[in-house]
């Protein structure tokens, strides 16, 4: 299992690591919930990066 901390149980009661529970999609959802302006900032940064690439 490596050095992943075991901190959650799945629906069957088996222990699973936090790394397996918190995938990229769930983390993105959590960060957006905690900081609603984050999504707007990321979109602005993406547009700025694209405009610099085009210039």
Could you list some keywords that capture this structure?
2 strands; 3 helices; Putative cytoplasmic protein; two-stranded antiparallel ribbon; 60% helix; 55 residues; alpha+beta
Explain what you see.
The protein has 55 residues and is an alpha+beta fold. The protein has one domain (6-54). It has helices at residues 18-21, 24-34, 37-54; strands spanning 6-9, 15-17. Strands 1-2 form a two-stranded antiparallel sheet. The longest helix is centred in the C-terminal third of the chain and has 18 residues, at 37-54. The protein starts with 5 loop residues before the first strand and ends with a helix.
Spell out the blueprint of helices and strands.
Layout: E1 6-9, E2 15-17, H1 18-21, H2 24-34, H3 37-54
Antiparallel strand pairs: 1-2
Protein name: Putative cytoplasmic protein
